[in-house]
Design brief:
It contains 2 helices and 3 strands. It is an alpha+beta fold. It has a domain of about 70 residues.
Length: about 120
């Protein structure tokens, strides 16, 4: 949930630039102190957690001044570009490789292609 301070700051100093597919809204300064690098920020959707991984890559590039122009939906044009997924670290949906303690802690035995090093050989 967005704080009152963020809402007041955004209303007073911000200009809405665009939205992403998750409902996050992006802003830039009305009157930047440094016109060559105006402040940019995101106000997360009300139903979303305040989580940096909830910002899609194209908006991340704009926020961090890698791109001067805000992205448009048609900018995502390559077949290999997958939809954004949030970071699941620390949640039950996090990736856990075979042998992880939370997946039973058992992994396959070595196949014989590994030879341990010992000093002095």
């Amino acid at each position: 949930m967005t704080s009152i301070g963020t809402k007041l700051f955004t209303r007073r100093y911000g200009v809405r630039v665009g939205d992403d597919q998750f409902g996050n809204t992006y802003y830039t300064e009305k009157s930047p102190r440094d016109p060559s690098r105006p402040r940019r920020w995101v106000v997360y959707a009300d139903n979303a957690a305040v989580e940096a991984s909830a910002v899609p890559a194209e908006w991340h590039a704009w926020l961090h001044h890698y791109s001067d122009t805000p992205p448009k939906p048609e900018d995502r044009r390559w077949a290999w570009q997958k939809p954004h997924k949030p970071n699941m670290t620390g949640t039950p949906e996090a990736y856990r490789p075979p042998g992880h303690d939370l997946r039973g802690g058992h992994r396959d035995h070595a196949t014989g292609d590994y030879e341990a090093w010992s000093p002095g050989e």
